[in-house]
Amino acid sequence: TLGQWGVVAASCANGVAISYAGLRVQQLVTATTFMVLTNANKLIVILYGAVALGERTSLSAAVGMALSLVGSFWYARARAALSARPKPIVDGEAARLLKPVP
């Protein structure tokens, strides 16, 4: 029916949008950050299935999800600490070498 084709078309459009967003994020972040985001996405899907849909999970799956979540937070904290470091100031001969040549 027309309504079913509308749902299929909406699903296709959603898939294209998600793929485009994934490619765009991949251009903006490091490979490691992208992998952490991918794992966080899987964690969200699993939690949604368990909480909203009532799917059962085993103890080992729950421990794995917890480890993944802890690792994601640990990585985010390490990235924040790294970006908070002061950048070295380059002067003297090194600064001359870094200046673009006209």
Automatic annotation (TrEMBL):
<keyword id="KW-0472">Membrane</keyword>
<feature type="transmembrane region" description="Helical">
    <location>
        <begin position="57"/>
        <end position="76"/>
    </location>
</feature>
<keyword id="KW-0812">Transmembrane</keyword>
<feature type="transmembrane region" description="Helical">
    <location>
        <begin position="28"/>
        <end position="51"/>
    </location>
</feature>
<dbReference type="InterPro" id="IPR037185">
    <property type="entry name" value="EmrE-like"/>
</dbReference>
<protein>
    <recommendedName>
        <fullName>Sugar phosphate transporter domain-containing protein</fullName>
    </recommendedName>
</protein>
<keyword id="KW-1133">Transmembrane helix</keyword>
